[in-house]
What does this fold into?
Amino acid sequence: MIDFRVYTLLQVHESKSFSKAAQKLGLTQPAVSQHIKALEEKYNATIFVRKNGDFIVTKEGKLIVQTARKMIGLDKLLVQEIQDKTGEIEHLSIGVTHTMESNPIAEALAKFCSENEGISIKILTNNIKKLYKMLRNYELDMIFIEGRSQEADMNYFMLDTDYLVLAVPPTHPFANREFVTLNELKKERLILRLPGSGTQNLFVAHLESNNMSISDFNVILELDNVATIKDLVRRDFGVSILPKSVCLAELKKGKIVTLPVENLSMIREMNIVYRKDSNYSDILGGIVKSYNETLKHYI
It folds into this structure.
């Protein structure tokens, strides 16, 4: 049902080059150019332009590319739904943030699949902005994120609440403390999530509410991988501000100790988000049940 020229369009957009797109698609460059020209004539709009050597997508081109992604997403969804009805199998594509990938969510989804024959789940990890984009384009069925943006075309289902804590190795002087002060934290080597991540944004926002800045602290390393951060903390390379939920396994095994930071109540929601044109009420109940049962193993 999809015009083959749509795939050419997306490949050109991804490659930022007609020649590279032609190589990846196994076409000649003139054929790729003809595909794009045909789409431009159809929609009476210029899609790509060259300016000072740069490959630029026009305003109209961005809209066409966005719609093309939705078309392909809907086509894949149609194919999957037909297969599900004939084979009585429910396929779900679920997006999770890097943080939620490290908490019991993945284990809960595995438990849900094992207890519900015919359910198949594919999990993709990305940042919140890209997850929302994939959800809008029908590339994902639902996403698991921290917080919410209150988008009108989305449904939000709160799975749990979480809060940020200071994570330290068991040998650290803070390990037996009930809390740590901000002034004490200033003297520590901090290993944090990348700037722009939900975790660092929440930490920074609470610092600012206390008339402080992230620059007041000794941040020695910033990275995206939560598992690596926990490993570095465990090996005493520094301490970190992390969601309590991602530390549950290490807490149970005694590999990491967590404690609150005085005057910082860094609480946030954990939400399941899905499009309003979808209906996952039955599945959501099962996922929540599996999640709550999974949490019991860490208490």
Remarks:
- The mean pLDDT is 88.
